[in-house]
Queue: 4 jobs
Job 1
Amino acid sequence: MKRFRFPLRPLAMLREHREVRARELFALAVRAYVQSEAALAAVRARVTRFEAALFAGREGRFQAAEAAQAFAAYRRECDVEVTAERTTHAARAEMDQRRAAYLAAHRELEIVKRLEDKARNAHRLAANREEQAELDDFAGRCRVLRPLTTA
């Protein structure tokens, strides 16, 4: 029986490397998305605390200069929140894109693996047939050499 050799093995290796690289890029994108989500949550918490402080400041005496400064600082925090939201949305889009690329690379690798499995099974079946043919031939030769004796 000759040894199994898969002619598309170089392609399979190339696709394995592509899949690993796509998986790494996807992991990096997930990490960036999680970090941007954490940053957004922190900014939202700051904005919430700022709003609470602004509403608490309205209970006392109104001072226009302090109120204007506090409102300007609040607007800056809101702008930071909008920027963080945009960053999070961009990170989410990047993560989705990397996921799609990883899934495509994984599918391409699976196709080659299935082809290799089919070729391996066909090789095994052919080897089994060849071995069975040799055994049948050997049994036939042994029968010719030893005639059946009747008692």
Job 2
Amino acid sequence: MIEENKSIGVEELISEVKDEFDHIAEIYVWHALSEFQIEVHTGEAESLEQYIEMPYDRLEIDIGKSDPLSVEYYIIATCDGPGHPQGAEGTTIFMSKDVWGSEPRELAEGLTRLKQKLAGNCPTCGKAVEDLNSHYREYRDCQEDDRL
């Protein structure tokens, strides 16, 4: 018997992840390759790389196309401090208001920015781009706005 892959929407997955911890400083998604790495920065993590098992094989993200983007993923909880460079390959989808030196980012805003990047749109100017890295090199204001 062939078992079907189990998928979950990004909003549902992040909601389940948030329920696992009492306090989360940051949730960051590294989306440079076909497999996404989701990092949850929390003092409750047992190590620098605590892998969180979920019963889903694939993550589905609605990016406004006919079919949602479907990717493999893994989740790491870490007690390492928050703060990642923002850019074409990575997006902070949540930043707590308690993190000093960073602007808070609500989950809805972070997910919107992630979906825009994955759909090939600059989250700052809204321009459709072939390569977000090239766009950021050409339009420094867009790159600066993407940073927290």
Job 3
Amino acid sequence: MDIVVTVPKGQWESWIAEGDLPSEPWSGTAYEFTTGGGVPSVWPGDRVYIVAHGRLRGYAPLARLRSYDGGRVGFIRQGGAVAVTIQQEVRGFRGWRYRWWDRADEKPFPDWREVN
């Protein structure tokens, strides 16, 4: 199963600055996105989609999962990000959700960084 997480508006620029963005080669660094909501049924290779500023921005393959006390979970990626979006507004949310759209609805999103 693929999952979806939200990058808060105030963290968007610092999240981009981490690196290993769409079309960039893997730097060799792993990045972790932590959130609450318990541990989902996901496996390495499943997609972790990113929502920010009301839009789906893309995904990266899940490399591994880390669970923490208190119901927090870390989704770890290692490059391979792809910029895609869907033709609907996606309001931000806390925690994670399973992907609710069909992958066939995804379109390339070359302007994924733009927040207007």
Job 4
Amino acid sequence: MKRIGYPASLAAALLIFAGCATPTNPPAVAPAAAPASPAPADTGGAKADLAEARRLSRENQHAAAQARFLRYLAQHPEDADARFWYGFDLQRQADTTADASAARALRRQAREQILQAQKLGCTEPLLETLLATLKPDGTPPPVSQHSAIKQVDALMQAAEKAYNAGNFSEAAKLHQQAFALEPTNYQAALWCGDAYFGQKDYATAGTWFAKAVAINPDIETAHRYWGDALAHLGRRDDALTQYIEAVVADPFNRLTRTRFNDIAKVMLVPLRTEPLRLPPGQFTLKDGKPEIHMDPSAGECGNVLGLAYAVACANVRVEQFATRFPQEKQPRRTLVEEVEGLRTMLSVYEGMTEEKSPKITADDLAKWGPALKILAAIDHDGLLEPFALLERADPELAKDYAPYRAAHRDKLIRFVRVYWCSRE
């Protein structure tokens, strides 16, 4: 099985960076760390058993890995993540088991473990993807076609079998042959790099990941894998660049964001861990007319700011949408609307601080001041659009992401680098 999301390299990166001193669902994703699954207290060598099980699994020593997983789970039956990785190993073993009956039994066991992990609250982003491939009867998922060119597809299917069997050099050779025949095949380049990664040839792996990025920079996987390879080479700044590129490529992918948070912790990158909390202001349209909704808990200052934001947004959607977006039939929340609302909020806040209205107490003003000062700095840097798209998107606003990325990728990268990672 390919590294469908959780590469062995992350575990290795934990060793590389330990002690270093250098610091979907619908969209609406903030730069906050993903919640962790419940972790049991360590007892004796149980954690060592789990770590060894994970190592053996990565090296395709499935029988030994499963013995360790079972010994650990006997002591920690409620460990959701351990159950997930035990199921993952069973599924990987099924992929390399020639006996069809035995492979089905392994997939059924894997599915049972993954379902238990889900019930226990496992937050591993791969869980849903893996569960979707595991049928209740244990039959294998349909074979994916990797290319419309029969010879290329055959080479890649053979390469995948070699990879799953741990024959990384053969897999790399076959993927190179496929790529030579079809040099626009993203997966051939990506998986060739992955095969070199399996051989611990990180420099060559990076070369192939770069080829995949060149084919399509808007797929996150090659960026993330390239970051892993660079991390193993000790090129931490370059690795961070690729992890940021992965987020920019696919910011609404939970897996991408979780891995970004994981690796940032390892690299000691000081992520802003909370979304920027701004005064609430919403509206709905009734018979084509806006109705403003306020939050009483926001206070006088928050209500004034939220009202300013909502009125500005409503004006764009009701009065300007048809002329600004003639190709769209139904009004929706847009980037134009969101930026207009945020800038109006900032303008009103600036006026409030200067006039010092007696209705607005100092405490009320201070409640929203820190966030609005950050927002003003973001606007001053010309990065209000990236902020809106990356931190305040819903499914409607997210429709504007791809066109904006095509024209302003540099701004999205700069926003993540500066305002999430505190890097210039």
